[in-house]
Amino acid sequence: MLSRRDFLATSLATGVTALARAETAEPPAAVLRLERRTIEVNGKAASVFGIRQPDGTAGIATEVGRPFRVRVENHIDEPSLIHWHGLAPPWQQDGVSGISAPPIPPGGGADYDFPLDFGGTFWMHSHQGLQEQLLMAAPLIIHDDRDRGDQQEIIMMLADFSFTAPEQIFETLRTGQKMAGMASAPSGGHHMPGMTMPMSATPGDNKPDLNDVKYDAFLANDRTLADPQVVKIEPAGRALLRVINASSMSAYHIDLGELEGELIAVDGFRTIPVRGRIFPISVAQRLDIQLTIPQADAAYPVLAQLEGERRRTGIILIAGRGQIARIPEMATTASPPLTLTLERRLLAAESLTPRRADRIHKVNLTGDMSAYQWSINNVAWTKDVPPLPVAKGERVELVITNETSMPHPMHLHGHKFQVVSIAGRRFAGALRDTVLVPPQTSVTVAFDANNPGWWAFHCHLLYHMEAGMFATLRYV
Asked: What's the whole-model pTM score?
């Protein structure tokens, strides 16, 4: 197991406290249980996973500057391991099976203990097999001085859901049109009930292929728009909306409707504020949006519409005695594909120190749609693939070029990076841990090699990662 195991095991005897606001210098470990649970989706019971504290709280909220002391207990009947998405732990505590640590066996546990040097909106999820598709994910909020006492905090965690087992979804994607029952889709791609596999685009096409999997539902805080979560807010009050895209394969446009918001952070890191009503969010990304609620009593739907389609989910904010109206799950028109228009506008509130790159890695995103094989630099990941080398103290740039017809959200573990170039245009863009790279586009990110270890770097579309679009960086 990981560091401080003996100490944390004895700490559990004191029980779980509110880690987010604990006043002691050495708080006991918070406990997170990996559990099976049942939710209702489209009127049907669905068995999914969850990451919860003993009192039922999903995930964890804590404060910057405090140690992250957590014990994860595996209460499901299969091995699992949790990744702290966006944090910078010692690499052995990063939660990637086969790289940072072995999976936690059923009935077992693992202990985590590392400092929290920055705050923001993060999340946790399984990095074991395809468990993430079954909602093995939860919020991870680190409060800091941007969290004003006069504002309400609202979390909207998005997920895509299918009643089809993830292993079956992946097998269907891999076998494609060879499987019985495959029919030609109107879009020119191919589909089966429960999933789609677009294959019409070729390199050079302007129209991207989107949405490999046709999901049964899209969830916001485990609920659909047929029975959305209703959040009471104060008229003329302030709110901080934390949007977490915990979907396995789906990107959205966040639509604030009648509200105008101020985007103040992406992936937990502050940006120069950008005002707007619609904001894109790719898989694994987060948005912090400050809202000023009008004085009137009213209902304010906050919706997430699937890119390229009419389907949507969301929550409803109710100010005062506002009346709730049913929100259709289908928008009147399809949304466009996500682009980098907002990304080009985002500027980091605190940029990396300007310096020349000591090392540049060219990372080509490659794949074969017909075989559903995804890769980096034409190599599908196995443990025999050599890692990309970096050295402590270096400024490293990754020049990521998408040679495929599908967008790929690329995530680097254990480090924050800055978007420094899009299609060859240099600028001091946002700090992030996950960046969208659309088809036939190049995005360059820079990071400081200040966290030695062996780190994952991969597409955060779950089935793309599973099919091979995965690599590692290792300090030499």
From this structure: 0.90
